[in-house]
Amino acid sequence: MEAQGTHKKKTILTIGFLGALAGLLFGLDTGVISGALQFIAADFSLSETMQERVVGALMLGAAGGAVLAGWLSYYIGRKYCLIIAAFLFIAGSLLCALTPNVEILVGARIVLGIALGIASYAAPLYLSEIAPEKIRGAMISLYQLLITIGILAAFVSDTLLSYWGAWRWMLGIVAIPAALLLLGVLVLPRSPRWLASKNRKEEAGQVLSRIRETREEVVRELEEIDNSLKIRQSGWRLFRENSNFRRSVGLGMLLQIMQQCTGINIVLYYAPKIIGMAGFTMVSQQMWGSVVVGLVNVLATFIAIGVVDRWGRRPTLISGSVIMAGSMALLGTVLSLNMANGMGAYIAVLAILVFIAGFAMSSGPLTWILCSEIQPLKGRDFGITVSTVTNWLANMFLAATFLTLISTLGAANTFWLYAVLNTAFIFVVFLIIPETKEISLEKIEANLMAGKKLRDIGQPRYR
Ligand code: BGC
């Protein structure tokens, strides 16, 4: 009996790991461009606008992919969505590597983006549907952790390949983990919830008995799935008819816009460039600097995992915003005082590292956690699709404007702008974002639908 329990635990962990592999590709694909961009720009003689297009094409595809995934995952299920995503990851990476010109490169980045959009919708959904209740939060954090590990791996591989300026290899090598994802996903079971929603209850039961420890758990979960399926997903109708649901959809969008406006991806995509502006002019210094940025991103995610359920969401987010506002202001100051050499360069790099740590311990994982907690069951698919698409659109907008901002406002003022935004978020969190620690999703839903202020929807209802 015990041996069987251990075997099942192993099965669920393997399934969780394979599902989270999609997070790794998320990270690899977002991270890989930062080291490759300068070589691509030199090879194809790209203007700043074209460079922004190469970076932004991925997010454009991802926004489209996330919309597509909302619909696709309903019809063909989460597993086949991930299979399609893995295929597109392989095709997109190879096309990037072999591209004869920048136009095809932009097209290939859109294909990769579609894969990313599909995966960033389907993987967390799959994980939350397959994970036992007790470790659901941990599974979403595992997914975020793998995103950060993917970014780090991309930075390391870019750095090693930068000695040869081998940008085609940097982009092409991502096809290998993509192929692993494809092989892994092929053996994954289908989501029991999706099977049940398609009236394939027997198969749902068979999957559950592979991954739950006792017969009772299987029966209870099948019943729960049955009950929740009685509440039909009616996202768009609910959105038109119910102003309370519009509030939670708006809150999800706000959270994602705030996450992106911290400036995280600017720092990640343009890390070598920023480190260069700070006075480290050698390419190898810039590349190894980005590796350290990626490493801090991974390590600080562990802080979030440790404190989010103890401190709660609001204090963690506020602390993160204070750290991010302070470090962006420091970076702006160093650049505006023209201190970008000697000591100043080290302070600037330190500011970037502190900024990344502030993000990874707060807004990084918390945005995704909160977005999955605040939507009422009836409109959860719709609400999460809208917030995921918002993430990618905001991401694209910021990546596509960064270099232009730098050349019009100047580097120092650009970072000052991000410092102001992060300061504003301290107040937004304080005034609007709810504390959802240790509150059941049902209670959050009841509070929202009873018209409570957004900030209070995580409060126990009757006090
Ligand atoms: C964000 C991504 C970002 C990543 C960095 C995620 O939570 O949504 O845009 O690149 O964190 O670790």
TrEMBL record:
Q: Which domain of life is it from?
A: Bacteria
**What keywords are assigned to this protein?**
Cell membrane, Membrane, Sugar transport, Transmembrane, Transmembrane helix, Transport
Q: Where in the cell is it found?
A: Cell membrane
Give the transmembrane region(s). 12-42, 54-73, 80-100, 106-127, 139-157, 169-188, 249-271, 287-308, 320-340, 346-371, 392-409, 415-433
| Leader sequence residues | none
CDD domains to which the protein is assigned, alphabetical: MFS_GLUT_like (cd17315)
Q: How does it sit in the membrane?
A: Multi-pass membrane protein
Asked whether the UniProt record includes GTP-binding among its keywords, one would answer: no
Which one Pfam family would you cite for this protein? Sugar_tr
Q: What would you give as a GO molecular function for this chain, any one?
A: transmembrane transporter activity
Q: Record's GO cellular component, any one?
A: plasma membrane
Among InterPro entries, the record links this protein to: MFS_dom, MFS_sugar_transport-like, MFS_trans_sf, Myo-inositol_Transporter, Sugar/inositol_transpt, Sugar_transporter_CS
Where is each Major facilitator superfamily (MFS) profile domain found?
A: 15-437
Q: Which family does it belong to?
A: Belongs to the major facilitator superfamily. Sugar transporter (TC 2.A.1.1) family.
Name this polypeptide is given: Sugar porter (SP) family MFS transporter
Give the organism, scientific name. Candidatus Tokpelaia hoelldobleri
Q: What is the lineage of its organism?
A: Bacteria, Pseudomonadati, Pseudomonadota, Alphaproteobacteria, Hyphomicrobiales
